[in-house]
Amino acid sequence: MPLLNSGNAKTRKGEKLGWITYGLHLAPFNLSGFNVCKDASAGCAAACLNTAGRGAMSSVQKARIAKTRLFFNDREKFLSDLFSEIAKSAKSAVRKGLQPCFRLNLTSDLPWEKIKLNGQSVLEAFPSLQFYDYTKSAERMCAFVNGEMPANYHLTFSRSESNGAIAVGFLRSGGNVAMVWRKSLPQFNYGVPVIDGDETDLRFLDPSGVIVGLKEKGLAKKDLTGFVLEPTEGGVNE
Q1: Domain residues of the chain, as ranges?
Q2: Alpha-carbon torsion, ordered 178, 21, 137, 181, to 10 deg
């Protein structure tokens, strides 16, 4: 059972900049019986892009659940397979004339810096490869902002309806924060520039201390929790 895929419609946009993203889709939240998104808010869980695109297919959902259960039930095999696939994917990217990068939390929020095989995390095992993720974990984002994460791992904090104050704190500390808006993006929020995060998924190329603006997609279009910001909720300078 392959663990990685070579991108979706958004991650493939990075190829025009010379990068190819290999990602890992697990079954989000507690869909598999195991919770891989312990910091997810109600709005985040409801708006998850798990069923977007090919994710709507039952075979894809079954595969994601199977991968997640393998991760929890046979961690050694899962990580061994993952390390092997990363090495092969990196070589494949080079043959295509592209630089490889990896997003292992496409539909999860696992602490890959702490998950180890033979004493090494995947980030430590491949120090020359670029990894990146979004996270709602304040603990993990704090470690990133403080320079305590591996140098090849970039994190963007994900704002939800329940962590707004924490998100603003990370902005003040020079971290980047993703925020979802309905229909259109403002130019500034909290006095901070808003960049279009839908242009590519290559978050590690973003300047520091910016808001990564994303437009509502899929189930997020029905959000009423406050996870999705309204167009009027922008340009705030307090």
Answers
A1: 4-229
A2: 20
* Tokens of residue 78, six digits: 């899962």
Query: Helix/strand/coil (H, E, C) string of the chain?
Result: CCCEECCCCCHHHHHHHCEEEEEECCCCCCCCCCCCCCCCCHHHHHHCHHHCHHHHCHHHHHHHHHHHHHHHHCHHHHHHHHHHHHHHHHHHHHHCCCEEEEECCCCCCCCCCCCEECCEEHHHHCCCCEEEEEECCHHHHHHHHCCCCCCCEEEEEECCCCCHHHHHHHHHCCCCEEEEECCCCCCEECCEEEEECCCCCCHHHCCCCCEEEEECCHHHHHCCCCCEECCCCCCCCC
221 and 227 Cβ atoms separated by less than 8 Å: no
* Tens digits of residue pLDDT in 170-190: 999 999 999 999 999 999 999
Q: Which two tokens stand for residue 128?
A: 């020359």
pLDDT (tens digit, 9 = 90+) per residue, 142-180? Answer: 999 999 999 999 999 999 999 999 999 999 999 999 999
CA diameter of the chain:
51
* DSSP-assigned beta bridge partners for residue 188: 193
